[in-house]
Design a protein that fits this description.
With 183 residues, this protein is an alpha/beta fold. It has five helices and six strands, in the order βαββαβαααββ. It has helices at 21-29, 76-84, 108-119, 123-137, 142-156; strands at residues 3-6, 43-47, 62-66, 90-96, 161-168, 173-178. It has a six-stranded mixed beta sheet, with helices on both faces. A hairpin with a 4-residue loop joins strand 5 and strand 6. Helix 3 packs across helix 4 (123-137). It is globular and about 55 Å long.
């Protein structure tokens, strides 16, 4: 079981994130803190390519990888590069509510017809493309996927702190996903 932790004031930032790039991310985006100047990034943000999300961040604060569903499974080299060459110490994996990659298998007809009408694809070719690639891109339930992907990244990069977050498109705020059961 997991829960979303709202960050609406500085006191809401969990102690483990205070004075870290994750705490700064909450301060800049949710709390509208004034931007500081950065010469290098210590944070990598993995987030969805969805056009409804925009983070309030200073320049040079973070590297940002945007992929469908915040699915970084096919981006390990990019992540490794940001860590090895860029000096990243933290990864914020940000999923979002109402994600189109959540249970994408339910959108087969729209996908196939869209490729046919919008891109000029043959219907059979579009359907084959969906059958081949939808299963590896369907993230299921957003929060569950972000938690599992964060655990994968933590195991792959044990010295890097990977943190699961959700962006609620309903209020445009970031929430920490805690995997601790509520008492």
């Amino acid at each position: 079981m997991h829960r979303l932790i709202a960050i609406t004031k500085a006191e809401d930032i969990p102690a483990e994130f205070k004075d870290t790039p994750i705490g700064n991310l909450f301060e800049y985006h949710n709390l509208k803190a004034p931007h500081k100047k950065y010469t290098e990034a210590k944070l990598l943000i993995g987030m969805c390519m969805d056009n409804r999300k925009r983070l309030n961040l200073p320049e040079n604060f973070a590297y940002i990888l945007r992929t469908g569903g915040a699915n970084l499974r096919h981006n390990d080299f990019h992540i490794s590069y940001a860590i090895a060459v860029g000096g990243v110490q933290y990864v914020a994996l940000i999923g979002h509510t109402q994600c189109g990659m959540s249970q994408v298998s339910n959108r087969k007809q729209k996908f196939v017809e869209g490729l046919h009408h919008n891109a000029g694809w043959d219907m059979k070719k579009a359907e084959d493309h969906f059958k081949q690639d939808a299963p590896k891109n369907d993230i299921g339930i957003e929060t569950d996927f972000i938690l599992s992907e964060t655990k994968r990244l933590s195991a792959r990069y044990p010295k890097i702190k990977a943190v699961p977050l959700i962006y609620k498109v309903e209020d445009h705020l970031l929430y920490w996903i805690s995997d601790k059961v509520q008492s």
